TrEMBL record:
Gene name as annotated: fae
One Pfam family it belongs to: Fae
Biological process, per Gene Ontology: carbohydrate biosynthetic process
Name listed for the protein in its UniProt record: Formaldehyde-activating enzyme
Keyword Metal-binding appears in the UniProt entry: no
Domain named Formaldehyde-activating enzyme: residues: 8-171
Top-rank taxon, per record: Bacteria
NCBIfam families noted in UniProt: one_C_fae
Length: 179
């Protein structure tokens, strides 16, 4: 049995210039017997426009810990759904397996844990004839791995948040407030 009950992490990895492939996953990790496991099981049904699916690396290759992904944006067309269930899902799957390889996630607890990851996929990606699939993979791979790492290490810590309270501000506050 694991003592990991409820850990959270997030990350943002920015796209290459001219792309809308920014990745911003948010992850919750916990025991299959705890609140994360309950939330995971309750996500098995679908919600119109917000597909939920297991993270797989490819056909018949569901990752461990079992991971459910869902989009933050309403799915409106097949092009978007194919990117989400294709490149984005594969990138996340590879990142999860690499987290096991690198001991970011404990291998000996892989069947005792589960994860839920909310995924940002910019709707413009589905309409972009020049979409760089390699950059879409890169951003989602890096951001997923970083979000999981942050969840497992409790980063940023309370001390870090307090220390940078007046030096870090949300990008949407530029011109709104001054520190």
């Amino acid at each position: 049995m694991t003592d990991i009950w409820f850990r959270t992490g997030e990350a943002t990895v920015l796209a290459a210039e001219g792309q809308a492939t920014d990745a911003m996953p948010e992850v919750v990790i916990g025991s299959v017997r705890g609140p994360v496991g309950q939330a995971f099981a309750s996500m098995m049904g679908q919600v119109k426009g917000h597909t939920r699916m297991f993270v797989v690396r490819d056909l018949n290759q569901a990752v461990r810990p079992a991971t459910m992904m869902t989009t933050k944006v309403t799915i409106k067309n097949m092009a978007y759904a194919e990117l989400l269930g294709g490149v984005v899902q594969a990138a996340m799957g590879d990142a999860i397996v690499d987290c096991l390889i690198e001991d970011i996630l404990p291998k000996d607890q892989a069947d005792e844990l589960c994860m839920i990851i909310t995924v940002w996929l910019d709707p413009r990606c589905a309409e972009d004839e020049n979409l760089d699939h390699k950059d879409l993979y890169r951003t989602n791979y890096e951001a997923t791995k970083l979000a999981i790492s942050r969840a497992m290490t409790g980063s940023p810590t309370v001390e870090e948040l307090i220390a940078n309270r007046k030096t870090v501000k949300h990008y949407a506050l530029d011109g709104v407030i001054a520190y």
